[in-house]
């Protein structure tokens, strides 16, 4: 009887302590789903993380709501990509009244440009994501100094996983014949990927899904696909596939699977984490570009 009473008391104590532990977590808000996953991997159990732009949603075209302002208002730390991705963020932070520090995860990235615009999609290079992770770690340590050792440990573990991921990406692209490492995607979200791993890309919508290609742009791309014998084109999870379907019909290019560019999938989907996303994409590329 005494033993059972002890078990019940221990269980009751755990139930009482659980909400308090949750309340003690650092509230961090990331701008979009991919960044949210990186913050979770750095923060571990010390964080409660929310992402403003959720799975399968487009950060380029995001329209914040009053609920998003309230979410920011409760944050101890805000993490953004920067590089012009979140044009709506400055106004949203002001509207929220938040005084939380803002970590720019892309700080220190060697950026690329396209037609004069900075390409914000730096996370498509695993080497760049290692910089993201270091910036997030440093921001968390400033916001939560007692968590330093925990953050350093989680980052060391995660960097090991990113090292393995990068080796696998390079190996997979290396198996594709050099003359077939050419694709077309919906918008220019894979420039950092192409530069890092040796893939040539063209895209009808530039670096942002906010822009619409002209009829002349589409005609030029169709001509380019035929001239360069680009073997495959890919849809993206955040972009309407109509334009790409038209280009596929007019060029005869093979339609590959869906690539995840600016957002993760829902939990349980093909790409619920950053590492899952990259592995999914290289599988789809490998299948479509094989001779």
Report on this model:
With 291 residues, the protein is an alpha/beta fold. It folds into two domains: 2-168, Nitrogenase molybdenum iron protein domain (Rossmann fold, 3-Layer(aba) Sandwich), CATH 3.40.50; 176-289, Nitrogenase molybdenum iron protein domain (Rossmann fold), CATH 3.40.50. Helices cover 48% and strands 15% of the residues. It contains ten helices and ten strands. It has helices at 2-23, 33-43, 66-73, 89-96, 126-143, 148-174, 191-197, 215-228, 242-251, 274-289; strands at residues 26-32, 47-53, 77-80, 102-104, 113-114, 117-118, 182-185, 200-202, 232-236, 254-259. Strands 2-1-3-4 form a four-stranded parallel sheet, with helices on both faces. Strand 5 and strand 6 (117-118) form a beta hairpin. Helix 2 crosses helix 5, helix 3 crosses helix 4 and helix 5 runs antiparallel to helix 6. It is globular, with a radius of gyration of 22 Å. Residues 1-20 have low confidence and may be disordered.
